[in-house]
Amino acid sequence: MTPLVLIPGFMCDGRLFGPQITRFGRERQVLSPMPSGKSIPAMAQNLLAAAPPRFSLGGLSMGGIIAMEVYSQAPERIERLALMDTTPFADAPENFDIRNRQIADVKAGKLDQVMQEELKPAYLVDSPAKPVLLDLCLDMARAAGPEVFEAQALALRDRASQEDTLRKIDVPTLILCGRQDRLCPVERHELMARLIPRATLEVIENAGHMPTLEQPDQTTAALARWLEET
């Protein structure tokens, strides 16, 4: 079977896709590399250098932004594409100073504070599992560390729009998001689905920005249907 590459989001690692790696790893090679580089194009180049010759590709949040760039650089290597809780747009101008200040705070030793007070509160819907998932988010951020925070924040700050890339995608594509995603709302995913000729939109109920963990069964089922699509 074709290998599956899943790109995690900002300050996350493969644990973001833990339930999906467990499920799909029984039948195929599944890779979830931490993005490396200080720009989205560099992250895509580095991923392509280490990836199998041809693979199915999924990404969540920043991982979805990188996935769009991977497709732009090497469409012939991508069998199918899944873009989850993400955006094709360049960063909003008002985020420029915010990201710079967050980078400075993290370099000054405030990684936990920035994650807990500014970033994590927007990730998840209220549920009994929320405290455990927030702890996992913080564990992933701590494992990544301040240097990764700076590199990823710079890449997000300086990214280009990918709307033209979406119009050129010619493989089976899953657009997936949590119904209550406040960072990348449903309307943005509806737009993405309209721009991609062979797109299927799946909205996961009772989930925010991390449906892979918040609603793993629903999300895994949607990804299974995508992997089987011809």
Secondary structure blueprint with pairings:
Layout: E1 4-7, H1 18-24, E2 30-31, H2 40-50, E3 55-60, H3 62-73, E4 78-84, H4 95-107, H5 111-119, H6 130-157, H7 163-168, E5 173-178, H8 186-195, E6 199-204, H9 211-214, H10 216-228
Parallel strand pairs: 1-2, 1-3, 3-4, 4-5, 5-6
Question: How would you summarize what this structure contains?
Answer:
Helix 2 crosses helix 3 (62-73), helix 4 (95-107) packs across helix 6 and helix 5 packs across helix 6. This protein has a 6-stranded parallel sheet, sandwiched between helices.
List its traits:
globular; 49% helix; 13% strand; 6-stranded parallel sheet; alpha/beta; single chain; 230 residues
Please explain how this structure is put together.
This protein starts with a strand and ends with a helix. Strands 2-1-3-4-5-6 form a six-stranded parallel sheet, with helices on both faces. The chain has helices at 18-24, 40-50, 62-73, 95-107, 111-119, 130-157, 163-168, 186-195, 211-214, 216-228; strands spanning 4-7, 30-31, 55-60, 78-84, 173-178, 199-204. The longest helix is centred in the middle third of the chain and has 28 residues, at 130-157. The mean pLDDT is 96. It is built from ten helices and six strands; from the N terminus they run βαβαβαβααααβαβαα. With 230 residues, the protein is of the alpha/beta class.
